[in-house]
UniProtKB/TrEMBL annotation:
Residues 12-159 form the N-acetyltransferase domain. Keywords: Acyltransferase, Ribonucleoprotein, Ribosomal protein, Transferase. The keyword Acyltransferase applies. CDD domains: NAT_SF. This is Ribosomal protein S18 acetylase RimI. The lineage of its organism: Bacteria, Pseudomonadati, Pseudomonadota, Alphaproteobacteria, Rhodobacterales. PROSITE patterns: GNAT. GO terms for cellular component: ribosome. GO terms for molecular function: acyltransferase activity, transferring groups other than amino-acyl groups.
Length: 159
């Protein structure tokens, strides 16, 4: 029997985010110690401005996962980037991958990532990349379990 708080993964669906999802997505981004330290109130107008910029940019999608009862339980941003390396390969970047705290460790993230990879392949991407904060060892285990390899060192500079 399926736990009503965690519907079957078969009931999980994906769609592009809508403006009304933005406060809930912002709350998911802040729902851990790292996010809580850097995010603001989920009704901050900066989130809606960023959402609109994502919507306006070709090859940039904000995707949500919905549980069977219609609740948004996960999100990720998928960015397709043409490049010269790898013989002109399109690469896909995954950012802001989050699963609602109440749905973590139930397979939502794995299904969401598989969906994003399928979308990237359908658009001609030949590789998928992402970064993960060094302070997130659980996330690193998750990414390795999804078939990703630790292949590069990442560098960032706050501006």
């Amino acid at each position: 029997m399926t736990d009503p708080a965690h519907p079957s993964l078969d009931a999980l669906t994906f769609r592009d985010a809508r403006e009304e999802d933005v406060p809930q997505l912002a709350a998911m981004l802040a729902d851990d110690p790292i996010g809580a330290a850097r995010e603001g109130a989920n009704d901050d107008p900066a989130y809606l401005e960023a959402f609109r910029a994502i919507q306006a940019q070709s090859g940039n999608r904000l995707i949500v996962a919905e549980a069977g009862h219609g609740a948004v339980v996960g999100c990720l941003q998928l960015i397709l980037m043409p490049g010269l390396s790898h013989k002109g390969a399109i690469r896909a970047e995954m950012e802001n991958v989050r699963v609602a705290l109440s749905h973590r460790s139930h397979g939502v993230g794995a299904k969401m990532v598989a969906h994003a990879i399928a979308l990237a392949k359908a658009e001609g991407a030949r590789l998928v990349q992402l970064t993960s904060d060094l302070a997130r060892p659980d996330a690193h285990r998750f990414w390795l379990a999804q078939g990703f390899a630790r292949s590069h060192a990442g560098f960032k500079m706050k501006l």
